[in-house]
């Protein structure tokens, strides 16, 4: 790259997507720190991965779906890569996400009653609880998945358009400037 010329465009990876090397080099070139005197590769990689996770969560880029059976107590353990639940279905009945107050008010005997086409769901103590208890029942959970960390030189962020690679670089640059 020529002295003083900075390219924040698409990368050299597959289908024009950026690789981790492209992203890092773009940041170091822009900072005019190609010798890595003031900023380390580890710092830049960390900022790029933060940007990747942030973009993924905000735009719900990586989505996944799992099917399974609830426990005997009507609980569901969320997938380890889950960032946010999008929907939860119990056969043909949608799960309705509620807070603790609503969940507990319905689960107390005699206070409220539910229609048969409603299943309340809350996240509590690391699991999803259901009311009425959906014991040993089938479910389908759709969620936003956490992206894999970019760590090797040729790693590419998945589910991003080439233009979004520019955002990853700019995020890392903003982190570098905030450290000054």
The biggest beta sheet, please?
Answer: 7 strands, mixed
Portion in beta strands: 15-25%
Helix content: 25-40%
How large is the count of helical segments? Answer: 4
Give the overall average pLDDT: 85
Query: What sort of overall outline do the alpha carbons produce when their principal axes are compared?
Result: elongated
Instruction: Give the CA-CA distance, first to last residue.
Output: 25 Å
Number of strands: 7
Going by helix content, strand content and strand pairing, the class is alpha+beta
Helix and strand run: HHEEEEHEEEH
Major sheet: arrangement of strands: 1-7-3-4-5-6-2
Poorly predicted regions are 1-10
Kindly provide the radius of gyration, computed on alpha-carbon positions and rounded to a whole number of angstroms. 22 Å
């Amino acid at each position: 790259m020529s002295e003083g010329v900075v390219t924040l465009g698409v990368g050299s990876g597959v289908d024009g997507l950026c690789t981790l090397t492209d992203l890092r080099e773009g940041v170091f070139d822009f900072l005019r720190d190609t010798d890595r005197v003031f900023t380390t590769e580890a710092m830049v990689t960390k900022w790029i991965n933060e940007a990747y996770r942030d973009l993924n969560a905000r735009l719900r880029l990586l989505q996944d779906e799992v099917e399974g059976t609830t426990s005997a107590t009507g609980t569901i353990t969320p997938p380890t890569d889950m960032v946010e639940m999008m929907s939860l279905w119990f056969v043909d009945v949608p799960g309705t996400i509620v807070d603790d107050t609503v969940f507990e008010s319905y689960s107390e005997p005699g206070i409220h009653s539910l229609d048969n086409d409603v299943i309340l769901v809350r996240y509590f103590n690391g699991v999803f609880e259901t009311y009425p208890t959906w014991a040993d029942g089938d479910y389908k959970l759709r969620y936003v998945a956490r992206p894999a960390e970019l760590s090797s030189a040729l790693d590419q962020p998945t589910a991003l358009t080439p233009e979004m690679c520019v955002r990853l670089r700019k995020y890392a640059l903003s982190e570098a400037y905030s450290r000054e």
